[in-house]
Design a protein that fits this description.
466 residues; 3 domains; 6-stranded mixed sheet; 5-stranded antiparallel sheet; 36% helix
C-alpha cells in the first residue's frame, strides 16, 4: 500500500504537484473546469481554488462549467448548488442545458456527446482553450478493465491520457487542450478532502445501477483486489502501456516522414502507399500507417474499428498471395493496384457537406480539409464538393483534363452557383481570392486515436464528470 492508498486529505504540497503542469499554459489565460457536482469534480474545483490562492492568481479569471442534462428531476437543483459553491470560491460559473428530446436508448452515449458539444461550443465562444476534468485513478483502472473486456489493442489499453490536444473540429469548434490533474489520485482521498472541509457533493443514482458497466466493475472491486487487480496496479499498467504507445507512435511518425517515400500525400485528399515497402514493416507499424491514412482520407467522426482494420490490412498486405482489388472502411476507399495502395474518400456513403461561409470563417470541412476565409472577403461563398459537374467545368477548351475520381470530393467554392475557386487544385476564378481563402488537407496530422483520449469508453454516468 502506498501513501496515496491511505484515504487522507490531500495536503498543500500535493496540490502544488497536481497542478504544476499548468505552469506550462499561457500565463493569464482563462481556464475552464468541468464540474458536475459529484465528489471528484467538486474536489477538483476546491483544490484548484487552493492552488490559485497559493499562486496569487484571482479565481475570477477562470470558469466552472456544469452541464444540466435534464435526465433527472433534481438535475437543475444540483447545477445551482455547483454554481453557489463556485461563487463562494470566487469562480465564474455557467450552466449549459441539454435541450430537446432525449433518446429512449443509448442515453449515456447521447448525453456524453451532448456534453462535449455544449462545452466545446461555449469555450470556443469565450476564447478559452484549456479544460480541466476530474478523472481519477479509479477511472483509469475501470477504463483499462472495460477495454480488456472488449479486446482492445494497445491504444485502448493505454487508458486515459493525462492531457490531450484536440484539433479544431466540425462546425468551427476551436482547438482545445484537456488536462486531467487528478488522474493519479484515488477517489477515496478526494472524498476525504471534502469531508475534512465539511463539504458535500451530489450522488447520481445511476452510479449504483447494475445496468451500467462501471457500477458493475465497482461492485466487483473487492474480488478484483483480492487477486491483485488493485486500482494502483491497473493504473500503473496503463501508464506503462501508454509509454509503449508513445514510442510506437514515434516510430510510425518516422516511417511516414516525407523523405521516406512510403506514404505520398496528395493535397486533394488521398494517399499513395508503396506496397512492397509497407510489407517490410513490422505488422503493428503497417497497421498504424494504413489506419492513419484511412482516418484522414475518410474524415469519419469516430475511430477506425481495430478489428476491421486488422482484417483489411491482412488482406491488403497479401503476404501469402498477390491480392488486387478494393475495400471500404470508415468512409475511406482502399484500392490495391500492383505495387501501390491508394486510400481516398469513399463515394456515396455519407453526403459531403455544403456550407455557406463569410469572412473570418474557419471550419473543418468533411473532417478532412481545414477551410479558412479571411475577414476581408466581400459577401459569402458556398463551399461544397467539386463533384462531377465541377470537374467538367475544368475541361473546357485549353483547360486541364481531369480523370482522377478523388478530385470529385475536394472542397470547391462557388458564388451564386458559379465556380470561383478550388484551392487544392490551384484554381482561382476571381482575382485576389488566393489571398483570401484556403482549403488544406489535414493529411497525416489527422490522428483520430488521439481524439479517443477525450473520454474513456463509457462515462461514469450520464451526468457525472466528463
Amino acid at each position: 500500500m502506498t501513501a496515496d492508498d491511505i484515504p487522507n486529505p490531500i495536503g498543500s504540497d500535493e496540490v502544488a504537484r497536481l497542478f504544476a503542469p499548468l505552469h506550462q499554459e499561457p500565463s493569464g489565460d482563462p481556464i475552464a473546469l468541468a464540474v458536475s457536482g459529484g465528489s471528484d469534480s467538486t474536489a477538483l474545483m476546491v483544490l484548484f481554488a487552493d492552488w490559485l490562492q497559493r499562486e496569487g492568481v484571482p479565481a475570477g479569471r477562470h470558469l466552472v462549467l456544469t452541464v444540466d442534462h435534464g435526465l433527472r428531476a433534481d438535475s437543475g437543483v444540483e447545477a445551482q448548488q455547483v454554481a453557489a459553491q463556485a461563487s463562494r470560491l470566487g469562480f465564474r460559473h455557467a450552466t449549459l442545458i441539454w435541450e430537446g428530446e432525449k433518446p429512449s436508448t443509448g442515453v449515456q452515449a447521447a448525453a456524453r456527446k451532448a456534453r462535449y458539444r455544449l462545452m466545446r461550443d461555449h469555450l470556443a465562444a469565450h476564447g478559452i482553450g484549456t479544460l480541466l476534468t476530474a478523472h481519477t485513478r479509479d477511472d483509469q483502472a475501470e477504463t483499462l478493465l472495460m477495454r480488456l473486456a472488449r479486446g482492445s489493442g494497445l491504444d485502448g489499453l493505454a487508458g486515459i491520457a493525462p492531457s490531450v490536444d484536440l484539433p479544431p473540429g466540425p462546425g468551427g469548434a476551436a482547438a482545445l487542450r484537456v488536462l486531467r490533474p487528478l488522474l493519479g489520485m484515488p477517489k477515496a482521498r478526494l472524498m476525504a478532502t471534502l469531508r475534512e472541509r465539511g463539504l458535500g457533493w451530489s450522488e447520481d443514482p445511476s452510479n449504483l445501477s447494475q445496468a451500467y458497466e462501471r457500477p458493475r466493475l465497482r461492485a466487483a472491486q473487492a474480488a478484483l483486489e483480492a487477486v491483485g487487480l488493485t486500482s494502483a496496479m491497473l493504473a500503473s499498467s496503463a501508464g506503462r502501456l501508454r509509454r509503449v504507445r508513445t514510442a510506437i507512435d514515434a516510430m510510425t511518425d518516422a516511417v511516414c516522414a516525407k523523405d521516406r517515400n512510403l506514404v505520398r500525400t496528395h493535397p486533394c485528399g488521398f494517399f499513395r502507399i508503396d506496397r512492397p515497402a509497407l510489407k517490410r514493416l513490422p505488422d503493428e507499424i503497417a497497421l498504424r500507417v494504413i489506419g492513419r491514412c484511412i482516418a484522414a482520407a475518410g474524415g469519419a467522426a469516430e475511430p477506425v474499428s481495430l478489428a476491421k482494420l486488422e482484417l483489411l490490412v491482412a488482406e491488403v498486405q497479401g503476404r501469402d498471395r498477390v491480392w488486387q482489388g478494393h475495400r471500404t472502411l470508415a468512409r475511406a476507399h482502399v484500392v490495391v493496384e500492383g505495387g501501390f495502395i491508394q486510400i481516398e474518400r469513399e463515394p456515396g456513403r455519407v453526403p459531403l457537406p455544403a456550407l455557406l461561409l463569410t469572412g473570418g470563417a474557419s471550419v473543418l470541412w468533411d473532417g478532412r480539409f481545414v477551410v479558412e476565409i479571411a475577414p476581408g472577403l466581400e459577401g459569402s461563398l458556398e463551399v461544397g464538393a467539386l463533384g462531377v459537374v465541377g470537374m467538367g467545368e475544368f475541361e473546357r477548351p485549353g483547360g486541364p483534363v481531369i480523370r482522377s475520381r478523388p478530385l470529385q470530393f475536394v472542397p470547391a467554392f462557388r458564388r451564386q452557383g458559379r465556380l470561383v475557386a478550388v484551392p487544392c487544385m490551384d484554381f482561382w476564378g476571381e482575382p485576389g481570392l488566393e489571398r483570401l481563402i484556403s482549403a488544406a488537407f489535414v493529411g497525416l496530422r489527422y490522428n483520430l486515436a488521439r481524439a479517443g483520449d477525450w473520454t474513456p469508453d463509457g462515462p461514469k454516468s450520464a451526468s457525472e464528470e466528463v
